[in-house]
Amino acid sequence: MADPNEIRKEILEKTKEYYQAKFGEKEFIPGKSKLNYAGRVFDEQEIMNAVDASLDFWLTEGRYSELFAEKIADYLGIDNVILTNSGSSANLLAFSALTSEKLGNKRLRSGDEVISVAAGFPSTITPIIQYGLIPVFVDVDPYTFNINVKQAEKAITEKTRCIFLAHTLGNPFDVDAIMQLAEKHNLWVIEDNCDAFGSKYKGKYTGTFGHLSTLSFYPAHHITTGEGGAIMTNDSQLARIVRSFRDWGRDCYCMGGENNTCGKRFSQQFGNLPFGYDHKYVYSEIGYNLKMTDIQAAIGAAQMDKLDYFVQKRKENFQKHLNIFSRYNQYFDLEKATEGSDPSWFAFVVTVKENAPFSRDNITKYLNDHLIETRNLFAGNITKQPAYLNKKWRISDNLDVTDNIMNHTFFLGTYPGLTDEMFAYEEKMLHDYLSAL
User: How do 113-117 and 160-166 pair as beta strands?
Assistant: First the structure.
């Protein structure tokens, strides 16, 4: 009978050969090859891990999920990492946890207010609305694109219970100021760290300051599992609540394939159930099923070994964009790092000045016509998006900078797949466009 271990070894060797044949280095041809703003950067190890996991045929969380979560926890120096199926789900689960009755008077309730910004991505705002709370939108700084702290303080009322903010495109918000506000007013803080994995604020990784934080592993992000995300916390109670919401609302915290971890599976009273009802089928939250598969986690475990390199490349690529665009300060305002921060840049953000002889849409059309991908800063002003027009939210003071971003701002990628040849092409195309004005 054939030895399955030998067959596995042979399959993995062939997988390595396959990677080299299929995904070998491709030449960039200026004007013919697309210059993407983001993309997957991987080698044979990600594919070998995925195949190895599939050969186990353990289709939900397993050994690779445990390894991936441990690598994230070790990297950030955080106690609890709960994997999920997307960054949006991570935000939903983090916010859901704060509505749990297990938190008593500290829980978030319908009608409470949550401080956030309108210049961002919908998944930071959507959970607030879905749970019947009121987003309170604060304007942002025109150079860091993060929350205006002075306006944030003015936005707080007796109804304010939480601050839910992203580190915009990898640039950390003013963590000290936000955490001081939260402490002063006894507010929860959720850090949306989806665009900022590897960023630091005053020497400490973002995603480690709030009561809860989130990550996304979509292909555009710092590491990828295809789809995927994670929730982080140092609070063991919040970790257990998040896991419950993620796992159908189940009260039991046994891992898949485990039973009776608590030693009291058939000897407890819950709700109005009969005494001793099987703890594995007790539901204490109105939950979901938002777990990650082990195949995804296997890819993530390999990606984590490259994260330091990815972060360094993003910093270098940001600087290369800066060297090109800073020659044209008469036309562009360029992003600045938050004081005290060391960003792992998700993107390079450019704002076209109002007096420029071209618009944001003019130059982005030109760049995209020449195969250089750009993106607007996500929703621009989310209060003007169709889905949010008739929802309950409040604007604090004004959103003047946010409206300027909506009309004049775009970004280019910093992902590690960008090469010197690509930057040379970008430099030439920008020069050609501006010199023709």
Answer: parallel
CATH number at residue 338: 3.90.1150.10
Instruction: Give domain status of residue 14, yes or no.
Output: no
From the number of C-beta atoms within 10 Å of its C-beta (0-12, 13-18, 19+), residue 417 rates as middle
Cα 191–Cα 124–Cα 105 angle in degrees, nearest 5: 70
Residue tagged 């970790």 (tokens): 239
Is the pLDDT confidence value at 122 over 70?
A: yes
User: Rounded distance, CA 416 to CA 309, Å?
Assistant: 8
The region that residue 202 occupies, defined by phi over 0 for left and psi between -120 and 50 for alpha, beta otherwise, is left
3-state secondary structure of 196: coil
CA–CA separation, 61 and 80 (whole Å):
16
Cα pseudo-dihedral 64, 68, 69, 73, rounded to 10: 150
Domain span including residue 245:
51-304
DSSP codes joined into one string, 10-34: HHHHHHHHHHHHHS------TTTS-
Same domain, 230 and 292: yes
Instruction: Retrieve residue 116's tokens.
Output: 């956030």
Sign of the Cα torsion 314, 67, 210, 200 reads negative
Q: Give 378's contacts (C-beta < 8 A, 6+ positions apart).
A: 119, 120, 121, 122
Q: What SS3 class is residue 205?
A: strand
Residues 362-401: pLDDT tens digits?
999 999 999 999 999 999 999 999 999 999 999 999 999 9
Q: Are 83 and 228 in contact (CB under 8 A)?
A: yes
Confidence of residue 256 (pLDDT cuts 50, 70, 90): low
Closest alpha carbon to 213 in 233, 199, 235, 240:
233
80 and 150 together in one domain: yes
Q: Supply the angle between the helices 122-130 and 87-97 in degrees, to the nearest 10.
A: 40
Q: Is-contact 349 385, C-beta < 8 A?
A: no
Query: What whole-number distance in Å separates Cα of residue 374 and Cα of residue 389?
Result: 26
Q: Are residue 134 and residue 207 in the same domain, yes or no?
A: yes
| Nearest partner of 412 among 340, 339, 351, 336, judged by Cα | 351
Out of 236, 270, 304, a domain closes at 304
Q: Are the beta carbons of 151 and 412 closer than 8 angstroms?
A: no
pLDDT band at 197; cut points 50, 70, 90: very high
- The residues annotated with a catalytic role in the active site are 221
Angle formed by the axes of helices 236-246 and 87-97, nearest 10°: 120
Specify the higher pLDDT residue, 358 or 59. 358
Q: Is the pTM of this model over 0.85?
A: yes
In a domain, 28, yes or no: no
pLDDT band at 331 (very low <50, low <70, confident <90, very high): very high
In what helix (H) or strand (E) does residue 173 lie, and over which residues does it extend? none
